[in-house]
Structures are given as C-alpha cells and as structure tokens.
What does this fold into?
Amino acid sequence: MNAELIVRRGVLAVAFAGLLAGRAYAQSQDPTQQQDIQNDKKDIRIDKKDLAKDRADRNADQRDINHDKRDLSKDRADRNADQRGINHDRTDLNKDRADRNADQRDINHDKNQLARDDKKYGVNSTQAQADRKDLHADRVDRNKDQKDINHDRTDLNNDRGDRNKDQRDINTTSATSPRTARIATRIKRTSTRTRKICIRIARVCATTSADAESGPSSAVFRCPF
It folds into this structure.
C-alpha cells in the first residue's frame, strides 16, 4: 500500500513538474518575438508571390525574343529567295532580248534580200516568195521573243516587289532589336531581383526557425534559380 502511494505521488509530481515547465515555456515567449515571426511569415508569402510573378514575366519576355528571332530568320530566307528569283528573271530577260535583237537583224536582212530579189527576179518570182516566207518566220520569232521579254519584265517586277516587301519586314523586325535587348536586360534584372528575394526568403526562414525553435527542416526553402 505504501509503495502504491509512493508511485502515485511520484507520477503526480512528474505531471505537475511538466505542467509547470510548459507554463514557464509559454510565458517565456516574448509577444514581440511572436509578432516578428508572424511578420516574417507574411513577408515570405509576399516574396513568393513576387517570385512567381517575376518568373512568369521572364518566361513571357523570353518567348517574345524567340518569336522575333524566328520571324527575322524567315523574312531573311524569303528575301534571299526573292533575290534569287530576280537574278534568274534578269538572266532570262537578257537572253530573250538577245534573241529578239537577233531576230530583228534577220528581219532587216530578209527585207533587204526581198527588195533585191523583187528588183532582180520580179515580185512573183520563186526567190521573192522564199524571201517573204523567211521574213514572215523571222517576224513570228521576233514577236514570240518580245512576248517572252514582256513576261520576264512582269516576273522581274513582281519579284522585286516581293523582295522589297520582305526587306521592309526585315527592317521592321530588326527595329525591334533594341526592344529585344531591353527585354533581355529586363530578364537579367528580374533574375537578379529574384535571387535577392530567394536569399531574403531563406534568411527569414532560418531566422523564423531559430526563433520558434521548430527545427531546421520545417523552414527549408530552395531557390528555383
């Protein structure tokens, strides 16, 4: 009986001591310190929101830069293709002009020959009839070459128009290069600001962990940058 009484008294003594220790620990928490912890937690939430916004802005800016680069590359490829078309049209035009000029010389020669044969052999002579036939064939060739020249001129003008339009697109896209540079600078500044926020969050977490005696594992924060 005495042993049971002693055990009961021991248990009550231990429980009472634990109660006193808990009350003393609770009273030892400074209200100002607890308010600082709450403020730090609030700062962490705000900084995390800023961090997410900065990352979203950075990603949007990077997409704009990539889009501008793709547009510029495409416009340059189109401009170069149009220039090759212009060069090809010029070659065809020069060739058709040479053919047209050769046909015109043949026409002039046939006219002179026809005049001589008419005078020498008569208008209805076999020689005169052959000359007229040659003259007609040369005129047909000359007219065909002239049509080819007109067609080549049209193609050349169209290709020049396309080339000039592509060049204007290139100039417009290139004009955004300062904008692209500004975006890149903004991305760099955002990354620097983000790292600073990460450092501040980590420090606040560490301070909060030490003040609240909650252990280092409950306030771990890893910066995503």
Observations:
- The CA atoms of residues 37 and 207 lie 8 Å apart.
- The chain has one domain: 2-219.
- The domain at 2-219 is CATH 1.10.287 (Helix Hairpins).
